[in-house]
Every structure is written in structure tokens, then in C-alpha cells.
Amino acid sequence: MSRSLKSALLFLVLGAMMASATVTAETYPNTGRRATVAEVAAWDIDVRPDFRGLPPGSGSVAQGMRLWETKCANCHGAFGESPAAFPPLVGGTTREDIASGRAAGLIAATENAKTTMMKLATVSTLWDYIRRAMPYDAPKSLSVNEVYAVTAYLLNLADIVPADFTLTDKTIRDVQGKMPNRAGMTLNHGMRDIGGKPDVLSEACMSACKVDDASLVVLPPAGRGLNGNLADQNRAWGPVRGVDTGGRK
43-176: what fold? Predict the structure, then answer.
């Protein structure tokens, strides 16, 4: 086939495709539409670190304590200590952490349980997560004011706000400046850049790797066996393996 004939065929094919697109647009003029404001709002529900998306509302520590006792304590404990299945929410932070914005316990070898308040950098994340996912058995059932109240109670348990504090869409901005690990976020880590600082302290190993039993999280006797045997629930290779929790010891 000559080059001129190939060019002619290509021109015809492209022309047919353009004509088909035109016919489709003219034949189905009402296909698709702009999303309505309500439809966009149903998806646009996140609260950003700059508090964009945060709805107006308020809730006090006292109100949050009452809600906590009825909707949260069964899973998280009366004081956020999470004695059963879930990691502890509060603890491990100090007044020095609140002043500096870095939770020193995150890198302390003696601090076995890394609590939520130790790791959390933005209070908006806490508020947003409670609104979307809590309570565990009835997510999204809390009103906006109830979310403010429960968040206020947690902040009080962590000694971030006083017992007579009322959390609102205005006062929450002041709370951000007191988060114990507000300065703890970084982009200089190995998951973002292979030249960044690794987020683990172990050496690279692909076979016959040594596991330091002293670094494993030790469950309290009351928590062993509550969620089955972790050794049977984790993969048998790699650095993370479940410890034997088949029964209470």
C-alpha cells in the first residue's frame, strides 16, 4: 500500500470518528449534567486542618462526659484507656509536650502503647473521624453538637482543655495550638522519598531476620484472648507477626 493511500485512509478514519462524536452529542444532548449543590455537599464532608468544612456548633466537656458514658465507654473505657480491643486514646503526653508540640513518648523505648493523642497532629482530624465513624455500632448518628462535646471530653482527658471548657467552631482554633504532637508531621520520610528518613529503626532484612521480642507490644493479661489468637491472624513472613494470644495467661 502506497504512503499516499495510507494517509488517505487515516484521514477517512479520523473524519468518521469526528462525525460519530458529533452525531452522539446531537443525538443525546441531555446526557450528563452538573452535580447539584446538595449532591456535592453529600461528598464534600471532610474537615481540613485549616478548619475549612467545619460546621458551626458547640459542646462542653460536661456534656461530652455524659455522652461518653452511654455511647463510647463500652469500647474505649471510661477514661479513654481502652482496656479491651482498641488502642488507648489518651495517655503518654505531658505538659512539656503541649508546650513544645512534639510528643516525646513516640520515640521512647519504654512507652509501649502509642496513644491517639500522642500521634495526632491536628484536632480537626479527631473531630472529623468522630463525626464520620463513631460510635462504632452506629456511625454518623451523633449530631454536630454531640461531636463537639465528645471531642471536648477527650481533649480534657488529655489535659489539653480545662473541665469547664466549651468547644465550638471558633474555640477549636485555639485548641490546635495546644495539641501535644502538632509539630510532629513531616514529609521527609521513607514512604514519600527513598532518600528520606525511614520510619523504622530496624535494619533491612530479607531472610532469617532476627525479631527483637523486647520491642513487641505486650498485651495486659486481661486483654489476652479477647480477640482470638493474633499469631493465626497475621501472615507468616515479614517483620510483623502476631504474638501468641490464644488464651489468657
Answer: Cytochrome Bc1 Complex; Chain D, domain 2 (1.10.760)
| 3-state secondary structure at position 117 | helix
The residue assigned the cell 461518653 is 68
Q: What's the pTM?
A: 0.64
Full 3-state SS string of 21-42: HHHHHHHCCCCCCCCCHHHHHH
Verify cis geometry, omega within 30 degrees of 0, for the bond prior to 56: no
Using DSSP, state whether 226 is helix, strand or coil. strand
Does an H or E element contain 11, and which?
helix 3-27
| 213 touches 192 (CB < 8 A) | no
85-111 tens-digit pLDDT? 678 899 889 999 999 999 998 877 555
Low-confidence residues in the chain, pLDDT < 50: 21-25, 215, 249
Could you state, in order of their start, the residue ranges of all structural domains in the chain? 43-176, 201-249
What does the block give as the cell for 176?
490546635
- Cell numbers at 126, concatenated: 479527631
Q: Look at residues 78, 80, 106 and name the one whose alpha carbon lies nearest to residue 94.
A: 106
